[in-house]
Structure formats: structure tokens, C-alpha cells
Amino acid sequence: LFFTLVEDVIKYLDPQYIDRMAVPDAMKLQFILAEEQVIPSRAAFLEQVKNLQPILESASIQAVPDHAAKLQRLSQIHIQQQEQRQELTDRVKMLLEDYNKMTLLLSKQFVQWNEMLTQLEMAKEAKPVAE
Length: 131
Hints:
- It is built from six helices and no strands.
């Protein structure tokens, strides 16, 4: 009786016990048959992974963790450069706006001076005729 209980406990502790209880063999067979057309392509993919395994084990790939610190440092530099670029962009934009304002004001001033000069010239021409 004790050994029967131990065998039952061992059976219940088996991780696949619930799978066997929850999914009957007939359903498992139907699932496999439903996936029958996909299985060869998946097998081919697994074969490709197996063939590419030496590449994954190459020195270049193994050195990737060593480059993490360099990448982190470069990321920080990149972030700083982005901030500097934004500041520079804002500064250039402000300078261009100031330039445009100054050009507009100078244009208006030149127009006013031109009008004043034209009026003075017309007044000068009109004076000798009046005398």
C-alpha cells in the first residue's frame, strides 16, 4: 500500500502528467496530422540553424559582450551630440529670424529714405520753377 502511494505521488509529480491528462493521445495525433505540411519546412529551418551554428560560435559573435561598454559610451556621446545639435539648430534658427527681421527693417528704412529723397528732389525741382 505504501509503495502504491509512492508510485502515485511520483506519477503526479511528473511534469508531463497534466499534459497526458489534459490532452488525450487522439487529440495529439490530430494536432500532429494538422501540422504535417508545416513540419518539413520547420525541419529545414532547424537544419539551417544547425548549419549556421559555427557562425554563432565565431570569435566575432563571442566578442559582442566585450563591445557593450564601448557601445554604451558611444550611445552617451551620441545623445550628447544630439543635444548639442538641437542647441545649435535653435541658435541658428534664432540668428536667421534676427537676420530676417533686420533685413525687413532695413528694407523699410531704405523705402522711407527713398520716399524722403524723392520728395526733397521734387521740392527742389519745384522751387526754381516758382521763382
